[in-house]
Amino acid sequence: MSAFNPNSRQLTPQEWQALAASSIDNDNSQYLIIGGIIAGLFAASATGFPPTGLFIAAWGFYAAWQKTQGINRNETAINNYGCVAHVLEGDNFRDFRHQVGDAEVNRQIHWAIERGYKLSHDAQDYWETWGKKTFSPVQNTQVLLPPVSPSPHLPVSPVSPVSPSPHSPISPVSPSPHSPIIQTQTSYYAPPNRQEFDVMGEMVGKNIRNQLIVGIQGAGKGIVISNALEAVRKYHPNRKIFVIDPKGKAEESGYWEERADYLERAKILEMEPHEVVAWVKKCFDLYMKVPGECLLFLDEGTAVASSFKSTRGAMAWLKNKIAHFVSLGDGDGRNFWMAVQNGDTTDLGISGGMRSQLNPYVIINPEQMSAYESVINLELLPKDKKPSSEAIKEIAKRSPVGRALYHGAINEWLPMPRMENYSGFDRDSRSFIDRQKPTSQTELMLQKLSLSQQPTFTDFIANDLGLTGDKAAQMQQAILVMLRKSDRLDLLEKKFGVNL
Length: 500
Description:
two-stranded antiparallel ribbon
């Protein structure tokens, strides 16, 4: 038996985008500039005519500018349109072609050529030798064969086309039985039903990726993240979890407890910027000392960045750290997650190729549509995944919690399903959730007694249970028996002053 498996490299679209982005990150423009300056100096010395040197140096600057412009355009093609085939090279190009098929490679390269993108050597060779010979611009069509005669003795008679009168409306021309009919099959986007797949399983089940969770205050980031961390526990029990919580709110403790192996909390709202910087640096140092595979989650990245921007020289350090976590940690099982209120992460150094290495998750509450407007104006989402505001509202209407969720792993918007609220605090109603789930009639009655606001035991039976007369007396005796068996007669004394 052989272990050879040429199909083992199956990457997600986001992983292909990251590979494509990394292949164009270094444009070496500085060498063109330096080379132009040196060549200009030599030319000026050799000819004794300074303008010659200036011309050659200017050419170096112009060539570098052109190359940088090409890099920027390629980043737009990768991040906004998901087009990667035209920049991949070597084994990456061959594996991508093997995974998605020639039709998809042809489609992407043809799109890039039409818009004037430069092809990689491998993409150019493929297109010249094979691609443009097999590419067909007609997509999603079905050729219908001529109608079949119901009887061999009754052939179908062709219908001759009739020229329309200039005064009569033009009607469709009946086709000849010898001419095929081209019928275009059109499909319209419809968000997947939330029951079709496991939201958290798709997010972390197979692989843990770097994630960016976006949502303004109260959108539901904590619920999504805590459920994702619970899924990490389920699918990757050996992966440690390190949480940095800059809010430190008591009502949100349940999000992290029993899910985080390491939890660092602070209320940065009450701290000076330099204190926040020192605390975050300490947290990062502690994380780096954790052995083995470990997921780092930084909550409220926008607020943290604000403190770093207010401290001289600190922002560069934070950008460098985040770049290190995003770019280098994934292969060692040291992934990076961050939650932000605004999808504009350029202040944190996350843009272009680095952004493509973070799966985005965006939570939208239709009551806060200004948040969605800010998201779609950024390059955070692919261009074809920016539905109208009305479409987002329709998706949210199908959600039991009234939210629309962009799921980065499947590249789709979907109604956000109801998830376990581990914090025990409902942000929408601003109230605590009673997480006690009675498993028996005894537990249910104990809970009712504990929560009752009635002044006497008799009032409890009459008003809370709605019983009077003989039924009330029978219920009173039944409750006394139940309390004796469960050794909770003290409850009557604590609630109603009854001493038995």
